[in-house]
Amino acid sequence: xxxxxxxxxDDAQQPRLGLRERKKLKTRVAIREATxxxxxxxxxxxxxxxxxxxxxxxxxxxVFRYFPTKEDIVLTDEFDPVMEAAIRxxxxxxxxxxxxxxxxxxxxxAILADQPGELLQRSKLMLEIPAVRARMTETMAxxxxxxxxxxxxxxxxxEGDLEVRVFTASxxxxxxxxxxxxxxxxxxxxxxxxxxxxxxxxxxxxxx
Length: 208
Description:
This protein is mostly helical. 72% of the residues lie in helices and 0% in strands.
């Protein structure tokens, strides 16, 4: 998510990538950065995969190999495995919601520090482009299933348990609404604070 291609996590939590993986990550980042530049210049709808490929100096087939849809280019990042690792690294006796809160806050703060421009543009696209918002819902559901594995392992439950799936899905749904709310309010509020507010609502039993 940045030109220098660092993974957004501490070295202690993220294993070193081999040469092949680094090259793949560099290509993904190049495609994503080219996409954001084109969208800034000419808008989302006018930006084609062919233009993205040319700007990133790859073939259209390479773009599709890394990103099945144009929406995936602006939504996909490298933070899912980082969040999973962060959850697994939390203290064993910590409540699951506290572990997820810490992992989400770490991810949000890393994105704000490393790619603030991309995050701003991505949240605007989520708000303005129905296809991006729809795909965001799908990708967050995929992330929820991934995080369910870490939560299940920490709690001694099966990742397919209904309660585990509802728990992680509720947290990801809260994150989705926070992102949309943040965009609707011109991205003026502190995103990490909004995440905490949303999770406080879940922790309090959704009372109003």
